[in-house]
Amino acid sequence: MIAVEYTSGDPRLAAEIANKLADVYIGWQRTAKIEQTKDATVWLDDQIKALRKPPRSPKRRWRPSRPRKAFTRARTTSR
């Protein structure tokens, strides 16, 4: 919240000037917020594009690890 005051001998002129200052300030704030939103949108779009890119090395893809068997079979040879 802001308070805007203007003193003049003419009450209508004082009201018009105070209202105009408030309108200009509100417009300035709105424009600033829109610019910040645009900047954030561009940054987020870049982040999303980077995350959607395939891995750098297409030959090596991530695979879930498989549990190793507790026992292995030994080869036997006959003599």
Question: Can you walk through the features of this model?
Answer:
Residues 49-79 are annotated as: Disordered. Residues 50-79 have a biased composition (Basic residues). The protein starts with 10 loop residues before the first helix and ends in a 27-residue tail after the last helix. It has 1 helix and no strands. 53% of the residues lie in helices and 0% in strands. The longest helix has 42 residues, at 11-52. The protein is mostly helical. The chain has a domain at 1-33.
Summarize the biggest pleated sheet: none
Q: Determine the structural class based on helices, strands and strand pairing.
A: mainly alpha
Total number of helices: 1
Straight-line N-to-C gap = 97 Å
Region (Disordered): 49-79
Biased composition (Basic residues): 50-79
Show the helix and strand layout.
Blueprint: H1 11-52
Region (Disordered): 49-79
Biased composition (Basic residues): 50-79
Task: Note the main attributes of this structure.
single chain, 79 residues, mainly alpha, 1 helix
Task: Provide a quick synopsis of the model.
With 79 residues, the protein is mainly α. It has a domain at 1-33. It is built from one helix and no strands.
